[in-house]
Amino acid sequence: MDNVSQNLLDLDDKKRIDDLKSKQIEELNFWLNIKENPWRGFNPDEWRNAHIHFKQYSLIYINRSIEDLKNKIVIEIGCGPAGIVPFLKNTTAIGVDPLIDEYKKLWDLSNDNVKYIKSEIESFNCSISADIVICWNVLDHVSDIELAIKKINNIIKTEG
Length: 160
What we know:
Strand content: 5-15%
Number of helices: 4
Structural class: alpha/beta
Low-confidence stretches: 1-9
Largest sheet: 4 strands, parallel
CATH class: Alpha Beta
Radius of gyration: 17 Å
Distance between the termini: 41 Å
């Protein structure tokens, strides 16, 4: 490969990294804005809870109740501060998000029955296989969609 081709590849990689950082900054700003500027009279915690309940009811829409997830290993990719995994009792619940440390500064996530891992899906390595992987509003935030889907496929059990 000549230097020009390599430089173009380097520029593509740099652009992908810049795009990813920009998306992460936008996501963090969204939640900071919710925390600092109550929306339509909701206080920030009420808004976060409403967001979580929306996800719970959406599970019902896709024919999955929280009961169906008992005794399962559930990994939520891009869980953010309002993921579904905190409500999953009697499960092994794992939340993966590159911004989780920032979200922990905004909300108390310490009481959640969740193991939080700071990671992007593209670099996430997991020693266990999941029965269910939840990936909600995430793929538009990844730098490499093919790698992200491959990682998700590697995480989920064959029968998951």
